[in-house]
């Protein structure tokens, strides 16, 4: 039996991980530490048994230390982060504080609890990061591997790069048992509606513009959040200490293609699901018009990386990772979830 502390466990990926872990590890104790900022939502954990949510800041090293000691934590899964690139451009300070200072706070507390006390307790500190730390790829460049040089281009990716380096340093300097995973673009249930897929789905329903940066041909590797959680579980249970593993979905798509998929799927849902037109009368699909009519090209984002792609060779060969969903299947599941769970996302619209 393990005792887990999951930071940011009321956010999108963190909550999906808690649900994933609880379903397969019923005897483990799970404590979620989350500051419950705009993207943290206790409703993401609704219905889960024996998951204790503690509202608190990862920068509060004393609080983290008490949780590690009092709850005999032996595993930290560190999701807590500011993650929206646009927000990092307009307000980088919060990203440095949470992603760099907050991660260092977690590492200090873990070192004190697991190493300085002399207990010799087996432990694992798993750090969840992003492929954005590697920078931008050209159209013919090889995909990011674990040995790709870091070249972050936004305050967000720079702050995540800093946190990655701190985790590495605590392993190599102090002997902390750490692993890091760098993932590609996640999508799926419980994603806060500031990110592309839920934002554009909801905009289609309300007849709002779909703002497309630049020419819309920025390419991302899309990863269903459940496949990501499966990958993290493999790293936690089988990954070698001190190692980094890249986790991707193997679905490299330009943003414009993703947006076209969203528009087509929404149109099909209105045609096949009774009652959507009455529920969302402002949607173009409610009038038999294409959702694609909402597409609007806007000035590109500052420093917008052109292409990301993940080389999954290491996590596949060492740990047996295999994503179960291609984008078509994963997106269909995601659309159905959002259409069936309006009571979850509607209260969040005022926080955007």
UniProtKB/TrEMBL annotation:
The cofactor required is: NAD(+)
Residues of the NAD(P)-binding domain: 5-333
Presence of keyword Metal-binding: no
Q: What class of enzyme is it?
A: lyase
Return the InterPro entries for the record.
Answer: dTDP_Gluc_deHydtase (IPR005888), NAD(P)-bd_dom (IPR016040), NAD(P)-bd_dom_sf (IPR036291), Sc_DH/Rdtase_CS (IPR020904)
Reactions that this protein is recorded to catalyse: dTDP-alpha-D-glucose = dTDP-4-dehydro-6-deoxy-alpha-D-glucose + H2O
What molecular functions are annotated in GO for this chain? Answer: dTDP-glucose 4,6-dehydratase activity
Q: What's an example Gene Ontology biological process for this entry? A: nucleotide-sugar metabolic process
Q: EC number(s)?
A: 4.2.1.46
Family to which this protein belongs: Belongs to the NAD(P)-dependent epimerase/dehydratase family. dTDP-glucose dehydratase subfamily.
> What name is this protein filed under?
dTDP-glucose 4,6-dehydratase
Keyword Transferase listed? The answer is: no
Q: Which UniProt keywords apply?
A: Lyase, NAD
């Amino acid at each position: 039996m393990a005792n887990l502390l999951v930071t940011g466990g009321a956010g999108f990926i963190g909550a999906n991980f808690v649900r994933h872990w609880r379903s397969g590890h019923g005897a483990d104790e799970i404590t979620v530490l989350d500051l419950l900022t705009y993207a943290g939502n206790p409703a993401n954990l609704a219905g889960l048994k024996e998951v204790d949510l503690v509202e608190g800041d990862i920068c509060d090293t004393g609080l983290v230390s008490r949780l590690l000691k009092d709850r005999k934590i032996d595993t930290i899964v560190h999701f807590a982060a500011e993650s929206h690139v646009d927000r990092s451009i307009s307000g980088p300070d919060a990203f440095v504080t949470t992603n760099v200072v907050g991660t260092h706070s977690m590492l200090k507390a873990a070192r004190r609890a697991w190493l300085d006390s002399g207990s010799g307790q087996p432990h694992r500190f798993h750090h969840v990061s992003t492929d954005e730390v590697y920078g931008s790829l050209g159209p013919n460049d090889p995909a990011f591997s674990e040995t790709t040089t870091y070249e972050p281009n936004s305050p967000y990716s720079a702050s995540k790069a800093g946190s990655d380096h701190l985790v590495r340093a605590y392993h190599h300097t102090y002997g902390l048992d750490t692993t890091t995973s760098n993932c590609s673009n996640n999508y799926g249930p419980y994603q806060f509606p500031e990110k592309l897929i839920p934002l554009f789905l909801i905009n289609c329903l309300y007849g709002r513009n779909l703002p497309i940066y630049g020419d819309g041909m920025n390419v991302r590797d899309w990863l269903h959040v459940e496949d990501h959680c499966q990958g993290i579980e493999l790293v936690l249970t089988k990954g070698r200490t001190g190692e980094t593993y890249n986790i991707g979905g193997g679905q490299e798509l330009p943003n414009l293609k993703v947006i076209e998929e969203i528009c087509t799927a929404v149109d099909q849902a209105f045609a096949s699901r009774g009652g959507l037109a009455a529920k969302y009368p402002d949607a173009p699909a409610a009038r038999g018009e294409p959702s694609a009519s909402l597409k609007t090209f806007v000035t590109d984002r500052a420093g917008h990386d052109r292409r990301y792609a993940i080389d999954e060779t290491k996590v596949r060969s060492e740990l047996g990772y295999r994503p179960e969903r291609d984008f078509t299947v994963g997106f269909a599941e995601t659309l159905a979830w959002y259409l069936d769970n309006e009571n979850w996302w509607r209260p969040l619209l005022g926080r955007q």
